[in-house]
Specification:
With about 110 residues, the chain is an alpha/beta fold. The protein has one domain (about 1-110): 3-Layer(aba) Sandwich (Oxidized Rhodanese, domain 1). The chain has six helices and four strands. It has a four-stranded parallel beta sheet, with helices on both faces. α2 (about 15-20) packs parallel to α6.
Length: about 110
């Protein structure tokens, strides 16, 4: 399991910024209470337990996905699930780090 998480978190922030600039959807997989207690505007909250039932919705975005949570464990599991379904996905690890990625995505739209 640790090797899988290590592989999924190996992308550097600059790589994630480039992916965000391609219009990536950032999915915060924390539970709704955690998300409401603090989140980055522009992210989508889909709790880890709901990922399997949201695969088709996520595929319909037709964009890369960056997952995040508190420590990277749940986002790594979500990334593994999505990757297994053929979705281009990257583990962004901590939700607090997503603000810079959302800003990079917004700058690309301007």
């Amino acid at each position: 399991m640790m090797n899988l998480l290590k592989k999924l978190t190996s992308k550097k922030n600059s790589d994630l910024t480039a992916i965000a600039q391609r219009g990536a959807v950032i999915i915060d997989v924390r539970n709704p209470d955690e998300y409401l207690a603090g989140n980055v505007r522009g992210t989508v909250n889909i709790p880890l337990g709901n990922i399997p039932s949201k695969i088709e919705k996520i595929k319909s975005y037709q964009k890369p996905v960056i997952t995040c949570c508190v420590s990277g464990t749940r986002s790594g599991l979500a990334a593994a699930m999505l990757k297994a379904k053929g979705i281009e996905v990257y583990n962004g690890v901590r939700w607090e780090n997503m603000e810079a990625l959302v800003e990079a995505r917004m700058k690309k739209k301007l």
